[in-house]
Design a protein that fits this description.
about 290 residues, alpha/beta, 13-stranded mixed β-sheet, Nucleoside_phosphorylase_d, Adenosylhomocysteine nucleosidase, hydrolase
């Protein structure tokens, strides 16, 4: 039997795949850089999530953001006082849509911190309509057990990372007046707005009854809860789980302009002013939120 010498690779009755390799005399490998991920963009320092169109309008105007399409999604971007910002709006109100908006934001811009900005209902006697609440802790009130004898609630609390709490404390310390900020609206009206920091309640209900079981539960769970919303629980959970998957901490916080007292007098009329106050407080807060490392 005559044997032949083969320069290269001999395969007999099989399959094989060769990648990034050269075969034979004087062979060369020419590699091209992989194409960038569709929709990929540089990482930003602060990501903003809004829910209602009037909240998005207020944030765009207050921060001077420009729109940018990525696939079928619209984002809003700018550098604001040296801080890179990207914003997006959820498809609809609620925890699930807030989580989806966060995932969209992270998938394109991967912000160092995500901030939920918009309106909320005040449930503490110290909070007035037009005030702004900075929340670094969330109490999710919708966990419950349905039994023949009743439906006891099981609140779940989630604090934001400690760095966020330090940033909020530094911001409040630097205010010209204790816990107050002068804000001018687009029509030129100036107001002195109270700024509060503390926990908020979050669940799936639009609450328009001061005697609602949800309000009573939150007061018994933590008498310092300042406001309620329908999205903070989703954002806090999304950041918590993303931290485990990515191996780094994903920071979050909530800025809520108070548009009602979650009672039977609830009205849409104050929403635009409350959204503007929240957006303006966010603008002042931005330098405290960026990570300088």
């Amino acid at each position: 039997m005559t044997q032949q010498r083969v320069d290269g690779i001999l395969n007999y009755r099989g399959t094989m795949t060769v990648r990034d390799s050269a075969v034979g005399s004087n062979a060369k490998v020419v590699r091209t850089a992989p194409s960038p991920r569709a929709g990929a963009a540089e990482r930003v320092q602060v990501g903003v999530i809004t829910i209602l169109p009037l909240e998005t309008q207020a944030v765009r105007l207050a921060l001077g953001l420009r729109s940018e399409r990525v696939g079928d999604l619209t984002f809003y971007r700018a550098a604001v006082d040296g801080v890179s910002v990207a914003a997006t709006s959820a498809l609809e109100p609620g925890q699930r849509s807030a989580m989806a908006a966060y995932n969209n934001l992270v998938g394109v811009f991967d912000p160092e911190i995500a901030v939920l900005v918009g309106i909320g209902g005040g449930v503490h006697e110290s909070v007035a309509i037009g005030d702004v609440v900075l929340a670094t802790e969330m109490v999710y009130y919708d966990l419950r057990k349905v039994t023949p004898s009743g439906t006891p609630r099981r609140g779940e609390t989630r604090p934001a990372p400690a760095a966020v709490g330090h940033a909020v404390n530094a911001f409040l310390t630097d205010l010209d007046q204790p816990s107050r900020l002068a804000i001018e609206d687009p029509e030129g009206t100036s107001r002195s707005v109270a700024v509060h920091a503390g926990p908020i309640g979050s669940g799936e209900a639009v609450i328009a009854d001061e005697d609602a079981a949800e309000i009573a539960f939150l007061a018994s769970f933590n008498d310092k809860i300042l406001a309620v919303d329908m999205e903070a629980g989703g954002l806090g959970q999304a950041c918590h789980e993303r931290s485990a998957a990515s191996g780094r901490q994903h920071r979050w916080m909530v800025v809520r302009g108070i548009s009602d007292h979650a009672d039977r007098n609830k009205s849409d009329a104050p929403q635009r002013v409350a959204a503007w106050h929240a957006a303006q407080v966010l603008r002042r807060l931005l330098p405290y939120l960026k990570n300088d490392r």
